[in-house]
Amino acid sequence: APSGSPGALALDGAFLLSPLGGLMVAEAVLGLLVWALIADTTYYLHAAYGWVMFVAIFFWMLTVLLLVIYLLQLHLKFHIIPWSLVLVIFNATATVLYVTAFVTCSAAVKPTSWRQWDYNRRAAASFFACLVMVAYGASTFFSFCAWRGLGSNAATSQVANRA
Questions:
Q1: Is residue 4 part of a domain?
Q2: Which among 7, 19, 56, 90 would be 20 to 30 A from 112, CA to CA?
Q3: Which of 47, 79, 111 corresponds to the end of one domain?
Q4: The MARVEL domain covers which part of the protein (predicted)?
Q5: Residue span of the structural domain in which 36 resides
């Protein structure tokens, strides 16, 4: 279909410049670093890293999926889905589970590891898990503000609806 037709997919470059878009890109990149660093160690010998891998890979895949949906403006084609609420729930859940993954990953790093490169990679994964956790927390804030209507509260929305 020609690019000007209503059914054509268009990239939304402005989304990448928005706080949510920029944070989503950061979450995808940093989340990839977390699970790649853990995957390059002997994580299977330590049960705690199974949880970290699950959280990192699961939320990385969902973040990339949501990023593609928003970049291709597919969210505009599915009006039945409350996308702003979906983002609030997704980001809040990711934040909480990344808190547990960060704590688990950090607690499982042992400086007396017999493989120095495992220690370095696990320590780096803990650092990046902290950054991803903060990014998801910021995304939760921005998506909550967007869901609430950029600063409006119940009183102002009632007044605006009656006017």
A1: no
A2: 56
A3: 79
A4: 15-148
A5: 10-79
